[in-house]
Amino acid sequence: MEKPRLTGLLNGLLILYITLQQVQSQGSF
Q1: Which helix (H) or strand (E) is 14 found in, with range?
Q2: Residue 28: in which H helix or E strand, if any?
Q3: CA–CA dist 24, 6 (Å, integer)
Q4: Taxonomically, which superkingdom (predicted)?
């Protein structure tokens, strides 16, 4: 059972997580 809405939400959260990790590693938050 595939839910495109849930998949899109998870992808959005993943992008936000990666972006935050990159910002924290650069220390330019």
Answers
A1: helix 4-26
A2: none
A3: 27
A4: Eukaryota
Query: Which pLDDT tens digit goes with each residue over 1-29?
Result: 578 899 999 999 999 999 999 988 887 65
19 backbone dihedrals φ, ψ, rounded to 5°: -65, -45
CA atoms within 13 A on the CB side of 19: 6
Contact 23, 29 (CB under 8 A): yes
| Cα distances (Å, whole numbers) of residue 10 to 1, 16, 20, 23, 27 | 16, 10, 15, 20, 26
